[in-house]
Amino acid sequence: MTGIALVGAAGVLLAQSGPAPERGPMGDPVELGVELHAPIVAARAVPNLAELPEASTFGTVPAAPQDATPDEDPDGQLVHPIRPVPVFDQPGGAAIGALPTTQLGSDTWVPVIADEPGWVHVLLPSRPNGSTGWLSTQDIALDTASTTYRIVIDRAAFRLTLYRDHQQIGVWSVGVGTAAAPTPAGRTFVLASIADPKQTFSPVILPLGIHSTTFTTYGGGPGTTGIHGWPTSDVFGRPSSDGCIRVPADALATLTGATDPVPIGTPVLIR
């Protein structure tokens, strides 16, 4: 893990917008699969979003429900708030946070892990790790899309595997966190795509929606774990970082390529 991978204040980063997730035919948003005839639980009114904890990589949402199935792959459904929206602890429940429209210069796209009529259950990028929340779909505040990409990181094997349409399209030996600063496990997602002119170790960094369990802050930032390159090959195939996933240049080029990059919001499963 490095100071920039554990991102500092957004103002010191040269933000590079990540690729937009895939949309349905003719560019229409992808519909979430809910039964229209089922009863819909109304969302509670939230008078002032500013009073709620921000559900961002810089924030902590203490009341967020924990991910109950951290080893399962999300199905690729994604949502993006077109304006800041409240996060609830359950359908019709209490508001526990506010999800912003952007994260580190990229649009906020979060994976859907479950849905009910009028609601989606999503992964959050805030502390504590494994935070989830429910968003109401009963207004026009959410855009929807999907991704067929999936990233799986096997820490014991020091391996990153990239899938598209359930087909393996790349596998690489990578560096992961040491015993003193392990790469956190669980399911998360690609949070943003950034470039920082103050460092030379990686042309692009992909922050994830998960944080170090060792550092509460790192390099002036909130301890965000990320995927990034490294200039030497001796770091691959072994524990070699402070928690981030260090990948070879060809892996980074595939993940961030100009023609077919992995979209923001793509699920990442860390085992």
TrEMBL record:
User: Where in this chain does the record put each L,D-TPase catalytic domain?
Assistant: 149-271
The pathway where this protein functions is: Cell wall biogenesis; peptidoglycan biosynthesis
Superkingdom of origin organism: Bacteria
Q: What is its EC number?
A: 2.-.-.-
Q: Name one GO molecular function term.
A: transferase activity
Keyword Transferase applies: yes
Q: Which InterPro entries match?
A: LD-transpeptidase, LD_TPept_cat_dom, Transpep_catalytic_dom
Residues annotated as catalytic: H228 (proton donor/acceptor), C244 (nucleophile)
The record, for Pfam families, names: YkuD
Tell me yes or no: is Cell wall biogenesis/degradation among this UniProt entry's keywords: yes
The entry's keywords: Cell shape, Cell wall biogenesis/degradation, Peptidoglycan synthesis, Transferase
**Can you say what this protein is called?**
L,D-transpeptidase
Q: Which organism is it from?
A: Amycolatopsis nalaikhensis
